[in-house]
C-alpha cells in the first residue's frame, strides 16, 4: 500500500485518486471538505463502532457461560437473555414514515436479484434483468423436463420448444385470461377500439376477461409487435414476429413472452465479493459508479463472438389512447455495504489504524450514488431521488441506530436532504430477529426493506448457541422450529409497523441456481408468506420466480397476515440441538464430507482467485451457490461438532485433505487454479479452510471475514496475484 497523508488520515493513493478524480467531480462536494468531513466521521464514529462490537463479544461470552452453567430450560433462558439485554425491552408503538420510496419497492411485488458488483459483466446483466425472456428461461433450464424427447440438444429441439410454448400459453391463460377461451387457440392479436382482440384459430374473436389488463403495445394496432399486459402489478409483453424462427411456427406469430422480472437488484459489496484492500475496493466502487451514472459497459467473448454489454434504456410503448409512455428498462438498484465488523487498510485513521470498512463503504457508495440523483446520470435509477443502501449483519437496534447515525452524517457531508439514504435492514442475526420491531423503530424514517437472510441467520444460530450442545444436521435445520418462526415473525412484525406500501418485506436466496424446477415448486411459499420480494441468484431465476407473483396477490396475503397477532419469541428461541445424538459413523462422515467439500470449494476460489461467489458442487453433485454466509454455516457446523466431540480433529483433518483432492479434481479444467493437494501446508486456501473450521468457535459471531481477508492478503502477497 502506498499512502498519501490527507489531513489526519492516510489514504491509499489509488483510492484517493479514484475518489478525487472520478467520484467527487460533479457531486458539488469539494475534495477538501470531503476529506475533512470524512476524517471527522471516522474520528467520532469509530469509538462507537468499537463499543458495539465489544457488546457483541460480551453478550456471546455471557451466553456461552450460561450454557456451560445450565441445562436448557426455556423460561430461565429467556429471562437471562432479557436480563443481559440480548432481548431488548419493548418500546412505544409506532408506524414507519419513510418517504420518496420508488414504486418497485413500495407498491410492486416481484423478484430481487443479487449480484457481485465487482463483476461488471454480471452486474450490467443484473441491471438489465428487469425484463427477461420466458421462453429462454424455460428452454434453458430444468423448468421443462427433458423427458420424452425434450432434451436440450442441437441448436433447437422442436419437441422441447413445443413444451415451452405450451407452458407459456398456460401462463397467459392464468395471468391474462380470455373470455371463455384459451390463448392456445390464438391466431392473431390486434388492438381494436382500445381493446385487445384475439382472433382464434376457428376464425371467431374473443377478448380479455379484464380489459384493463391491456396497458399498451408496440407496432401497428392491427399487427402489434408487442402487446403489453399487467397482472398483480407486474407487466409482461406478448412479443409477435411472424418472421422470427419461433414466431413463424406459431399460429399467432408469438415469438416470446417478455416478463417484467427483477424489479430490484442488490449490487453487492458484501458477501458475494472479495475486497480486502484498496485495489479491490476501487474495482467495486468503480463499477458502482458506472452503474449509478448509467454508463457502465464491458466487452467480453461469448460463444466465440466478442460483445459489448451496456445498461438498457427504458422501454417505449403506445397507450390505447394513442399517447406514448415508457416503463423502466432497468432494475431499481440497491447497493449492499459491508456490516459493522471489518476494518480495511485502504484508509488509516489519525492513529494509524485501519478504518471501519462499513464507514468507508457508506461514505463512498453514497457519494457515488449522488450522481444518480443530481442530474449527472445517463440513466435514472431512483425516480424518487432516493439512494438505497442495504446494511447487513447488524445485531439489535443499537447497531441499526448506529447505521442511521452514519447515514445522517453522510447526508450532511454530501449535502443530501435528510433521509435521502434509505436503509435495507437484513434481519439475519438472532439479536435482530428477536428485536426486529426496535430495529425498525431505530430506522423508521429511512427503512426501505427488511429481509430474512436465512443463510447468515443460520450461521448465527449455530454460533450463538455453540456451548449449548451439538446442532442437528445442516439439511435438517431448514425444517426446524426457530427458522419457521423467524420467517413468520419477520413478515408479521414488518406489517405491524406499517411496511406495506412503504418498504419491502423480503425473503432469502434460492441457493441452487441450476434447479429451477424445484424453485418453481418451492419459492412460491415466499410469496404466500406475504413477502413482496425474495432473492434470486440469476436473471433466469428472476424470470421464473416472477411467475409466482402472477399466481399470488401479495397485498391480499399481507392483509390476511395483518389480522393475525402472534408472539413468535419462544419458538425463535428453540435452539436446533440434537438432544440424544445417535448418528451412525457413516452419517457423521457424510455430513462432515459435505461441509468440508463446500468450504474448500468456495474458499479456494475466494482466497486464491478473488472470486466471492461461486457455484460449488455438493456431495450429490448439485451446484450450490456458495458465498460467505453459506461458508459461515458450514464452518460453524463442523466447529460445533468438533466442540461437542461428534467428530475428532484427526477425522476432520483427514476429511479436509480428502475433500481437497475432490475439489482439485473439480477445478482441473481451470488453468489458473492452484491445487491444494498434496502440499497442504503450502496452500494458503487449504490453511484458510482449516482455520475456519478449527478456529471456528473463536471467530466473532462465527464470521468468516477475518480469516478470509487475512488469508487473501497473504495469497496476494505470496503469489503476487491481481484480480
Ligand atoms: C447469503 C447471501 O448473501 S446471497 C447473496 C450473494 N449471492 C449472490 O449474489 C449470487 C449471485 N449469483 C452469482 O454470482 C452466480 O449466479 C453464481 C456464482 C451463483 C453462478 O454463476 P455461474 O456459474 O457463472 O452461472 P451460470 O454459468 O449458470 O450463468 C452465467 C450467466 O448468467 C449470468 N448471471 C449469473 N448470475 C447472475 C447474476 N446474479 N446477475 C446477473 N447475471 C448473472 C451471467 O452474466 C452469465 O451470462 P453471460 O454469459 O451472458 O454474461
Ligand atoms: O444475506 C443473506 C443471507 O442469507 O445471509
Ligand atoms: Mg447475509
Automatic annotation (TrEMBL):
Glyoxylate binds at residues 336, 428, 453-456. Pathway: Carbohydrate metabolism; glyoxylate cycle; (S)-malate from isocitrate: step 2/2. Residues 16-73 form the Malate synthase N-terminal domain. The keyword Transmembrane does not apply. Residues 333-574 form the Malate synthase TIM barrel domain. GO terms for cellular component: cell surface; cytosol. Its main location: cytoplasm. The modification Cysteine sulfenic acid (-SOH) is found at residue 613. It is an enzyme of class 2 (transferase). Mg(2+) binds at residues 428, 456. Involved in the glycolate utilization. Catalyzes the condensation and subsequent hydrolysis of acetyl-coenzyme A (acetyl-CoA) and glyoxylate to form malate and CoA. Belongs to the malate synthase family. GlcB subfamily. This is Malate synthase G. It comes from Pseudobacillus wudalianchiensis. The gene is glcB.
